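REQUEST
  id: r-88c1
  op: predict_structure
  target: TlpA disulfide reductase family protein
  payload:
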Amino acid sequence: MSHSRAPRGLLLTAGALAAALALTACSGSPKGTSGGGGNTNFVTNIGGIATITKDERPAPKELAGETLEGDRLDVADFKGKVVVLNLWGDWCNPCRAEAPHFAKVAGDLKSEGVEFVGINTRSDKGKSIKFEKDFKIPYPSLYDRYGKLVLNGFPKGAVHPQAIPSTLVLDRDGKIAARALKALSEKELRSMIAPVLAEKADGQ
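RESPONSE
  id: r-88c1
  status: 200
  body:
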């Protein structure tokens, strides 16, 4: 009897993990509501871009690993700069729609101390590298093949595994200041970054 129970338990565990990681569609909440049930203190405006007041902002957990190009990258190394994190996949059509906007804004704001980092999730590495070349993406992407960074790298409720693309803006203290669980236009992306860029880091 015990022999028959073990495989069933393993199947249930595997099924639960697959459900948690499944990114079967590019779906983002139009209102930017929190996923995962965490109390993340996001306040959402009509356009679906959510913000957090400076004294309530959570910090992401470790966001480090290998990029699509094989280099080592740790988002924590960018502390002191405004960081834009974009969660994307090569299979995601809305990601393709927003990619030219991200490439342009990243190039425009580099000199102002804004760093862009992609988190490429549930994707084929070769196709994702081609995606970056096709859209002339000027910044690196962490390669998150199995969605571990998406699931474990953020406070509970800050992102939703099925909301791809998603974008978060970190302030100069490395804390989450704004979030959008949808594809962004150039205007929307700039509107997320501008207020954070205008802030000063703690102690300045």
